[in-house]
Amino acid sequence: MSWTVRDSSFDKARIITNGNKYMTGNGYMGYRGTLEEFGRDQLAAVTLAGVYDQAGERWREPVNAPNGLYTALVCNGQRLSVLETEPLDHKQELDIRSAVHRRETVYRIPEGGELIYTAERFASMAELHVLASRQTVKCTADCRITIETGIDSEVWDINGPHLQDKQEMFKNGVLLASAVTGELQLPVAVAELSVFGFGGLKLSKAGALRRVTFDAKAGEIYEWFKYAAVYTGLDMEGAPEELAEQAVQAAAEKGYRELLQAHRRVWEERWSRCDCLIEGDAAAQLALRYSMYQLMIIAPTASEKVSIPARGLSGQVYKGAVFWDTEMFMLPFFLHSDPGVARNLMMYRIHTLDGARRKAAEYGYLGAFYAWESQDSGDDACTLFNVNDVFTGRPMRTYFRDEQVHISADVVHGIWQYIQFTGDDSLLLDGGAGVIWECARFFYSYAYYNPVKERYEILDVTGPDEYHERVNNNAFTNALVKETLEIALSCAELLESRYPESYRELHRQFTGGPFLTEFRTLLEGLYLPRPDPDTLLIEQFDRYFQLEEVTLPELRSRVINKNEYWGGGNGLATTTRILKQADVVLMLHLFKSAFTKEVKQANWEFYEPRTEHGSSLSACIYALVAAEIGSPDWGYPYFMRTATVDLTGESKQYVGDLYIGGTHPAANGGAWMAAVLGFAGVQFDGATVCLKPALPKHWQSVELPVTLRGGQYSLRVTRDEIVITAAAGNREALAFAGFGSPAELCGPGAELRLRLAEPAAAEN
Ligand code: BGC
Questions:
Q1: What is the tens place of the pLDDT at every residue in 627-664?
Q2: What is the mean pLDDT of residues 119-128?
Q3: Atom 11 of ligand 1 has which residue's CA nearest to it?
Q4: Which segments of the chain belong to CATH 2.70.98.40?
Q5: In the UniProt record, does the keyword Transferase occur (predicted)?
Q6: Across 143-152, 433-442, 650-659, least confident range
Q7: What gap in Å lies between CA 754 and CA 740, rounded to an integer?
Q8: CB atoms < 10 A from the CB of 4, how many?
């Protein structure tokens, strides 16, 4: 059961949220969890990673490809579709172990009897361009069936249309739909081949659809297979139509079962690197696995030119843009389980450095100011008016694009984490060092020297809490700027000692500065908001404590329109202490060793009741830090809320008439962070793995594999003991420590047992 997600009835009201819940994908494309007969109105979509288009003046967004798995049934002249006919029975199911989607629908045949329709499909993890499906019908009375199947080119778009010059044709038994995108003129091609396992078919064709009619005998099972392939002009050399056609021919030759086996083998291997077992909590087990599943179906395994957008590959919401969500909320999962994907994610930032340089220059700064909403080129897709006022209908000026400067520090943080976790410092030579230094240069030009207070300050920023824009000295941002400067210096040291020649060459590009000397000056003089000696509280930004003290229920009672924006110039929260999402508390997690448990606890307790969790990036951080302060049961409800966000669909789907739903990969990554970094307490600083478990009261143990510095380990964490097993093939030993006990080395093939003197949740 803990591998299966299921709905056992059909509910029209769940069509859109089920489209998210039942997502499949393989990093190249996402296939929404819609049913075979669904089209654009039900938000059916095959969203392509990294392929963007702008139609007219509308927001630039990813391109959805024509749906090569479209299928509808007609029985004795009546269309059978859950949209038009109430089914007698209906199941929709996702096997997250091997990413296979299934549906089974039973319809009444108008003249008597029943028809059972099944369809299974997957986006191949072994052949990333291929989608495959196996479908059957069986009826209890003889009837005449027409299967309408092929490619649906009427794609769902938010700011489209993106596909022009659409062509549809039949060639060698293959259906082809092709088009070009409007802005970049990129060809997009989809091919489809259906193989019917029975005879007596009458065939007719219309556009990219074929109609197959046959007389079905009661009790017989009629089976057919569909193979679809998608290629675009961004793929390898060759015409996308030809590549797509060859791919479906090759898929059909292999056959469905062989394709499925290959797909399963890849999934088995993926799970073997990350599956996390929770003993004592079946609901948490499924939700955590599901969160990891959502991350794996959108992970770029084969490209370093794309990263993971804030809504994954579940459509075009948020312009398909990549935010800080990736580095701060998703990267940790990949760093512990799939360093190859982690590297691709960081390479994406290296490839988009020029966009970040252009943005810095546009604002008159030096270095690299990364896009708040990044697409293919790294130029910022975020507009200056990113939210519509529900009262006036007018666009509101927002300060996400120009002031969330922490994005550049988040990128640097991600790159350095990658180096620490993998030991693969080649990333620095492949462009990582340039990114780090350019971001440090950006902050050097952004910082303000306050001659009265004799310190550098970071003014006019928006921190993670977007309800308070244009603030000064946001504690989170200042701490991240400090980290960027430290990393810039460490990066120079590392390169100088290990790769002196490359270092000299790279260094030359920065002569004329500002460079290391200036970074040091800024670092030494940078102001960091510190805990108040009496209350231990860290002020989120200058004068935050002067804002109106109001409870969340009181603020909610002031809402006039349920979709009104709480931030901005006259937002409800702007003048109050209510924050959108974890801000100071996230900083406490990132720099955990710089703060005492008392400081963490005081700030958690202060900010928690004042946080609206208006972003899905928030709850996981409160769960994580609750565990870090030894109070996992405070964090558990936040963990479950995060881990189930895409299962329950309990998140905003619309603001006004704007669809903002989709999957929530940052929350998926956050759920993993809360469970593994928080409750299991796995904390790696690049040298030693410290295990500080704080298990929720009904969890007996957590068991998981991790990949650290190229070595594979399996960890079993219980309340009183931690068992570490190192794979025999590891090349070196790694140090592990638990709760203040001295670190011990765990060599290749060794098993290490660390006894925990105190009960796991009692101390930290
Ligand atoms: C959050 C941001 C986040 C973005 C995309 C916003 O609501 O406030 O922190 O990056 O959504 O997930």
A1: 999 999 999 999 999 999 999 998 888 776 678 899 99
A2: 98
A3: 615
A4: 4-272
A5: yes
A6: 650-659
A7: 11
A8: 12
Please state the atom number of ligand 1 nearest to the C-alpha of residue 664.
Answer: 12
Identify whether the C-beta of residue 320 lies closer than 8 Å to the C-beta of residue 375: yes
The β-bridge relationship of strands 24-25 and 654-655 is unpaired
Non-local (6+) Cβ contacts of 11 within 8 A are: none
| CATH tag, 4-272 | 2.70.98.40
- Residue 416 has phi, psi (to 5 degrees) of -70, -35
pLDDT digits (tens, 9 = 90+) for 222-262: 999 999 999 999 998 889 999 999 999 999 999 999 999 99
- Ligand 1 atom with the shortest distance to the CA of 666: 12
Q: Model-level pTM greater than 0.85?
A: yes
Q: How far is CA 228 from CA 122, 312, 401, 567, 646, in A?
A: 11, 22, 39, 45, 27
613 CA distance to ligand 1 middle (Å):
11
Select from 317, 327, 615, 642 the residue to mutate for testing ligand 1; criterion: most ligand atoms less than 8 Å from CB: 615
Atom of ligand 1 nearest to the CA of 323: 10
Residues 6+ apart with CB under 8 A from 338: 270, 273, 274, 299, 301, 707
Mean pLDDT of the chain: 96
Q: Which residues line ligand 1 (CB under 6 A)?
A: 310, 318, 323-325, 464, 466, 580-581, 615, 617, 666
Among 325, 370, 386, 651, the mutation site with the greatest number of ligand 1 atoms within 8 A of its Cβ is 325
Q: What residues does CATH 2.60.420.10 cover in the chain? A: 689-755
Q: Which CATH architecture has domain 305-679?
A: Alpha/alpha barrel (1.50)
Give distance in angstroms: CA of 121 to centre of ligand 1: 32
Q: Tell me which residue has its CA closest to atom 1 in ligand 1.
A: 615
Q: How far is CA 80 from CA 36, 109, 198, 391, 422, in A?
A: 11, 9, 21, 43, 53
328 CA to middle of ligand 1, Å?
12
CB atoms within 10 A of CB 172: 8
C-alpha 373 – ligand 1 centre gap (Å): 10
Tokens of 348: 């994406």
Ligand 1 atom showing the smallest separation from residue 617 Cα = 9
Local structure of 685: helix, strand or coil: coil
364: left (phi over 0), alpha (psi -120 to 50) or beta: left
Q: How many angstroms is it from 616 CA to the middle of ligand 1?
A: 8
Q: Where are the alpha helices (DSSP H) in 405-474?
A: 406-422, 426-427, 433-446
Residue nearest to atom 6 of ligand 1 (CA): 615
Q: How confident is the model at residue 760 (pLDDT cuts 50, 70, 90)?
A: very low
Nearest CA to ligand 1 atom 5: 310
Delimiting residues of CATH 1.50.10.10 domain(s) in the chain: 305-679
Active site residues: 466
**Backbone phi and psi for residue 598, each to the nearest 5 degrees, phi listed first:** -65, -40
User: Which residues carry a binding-site annotation for substrate?
Assistant: 324-325, 580-581
In terms of CATH architecture, what is 689-755?
Sandwich (2.60)
Radius of gyration, CA atoms only, the chain:
27
Annotated binding site: 324-325, 580-581
Helix (H, G, I), strand (E, B) or coil at 152: strand
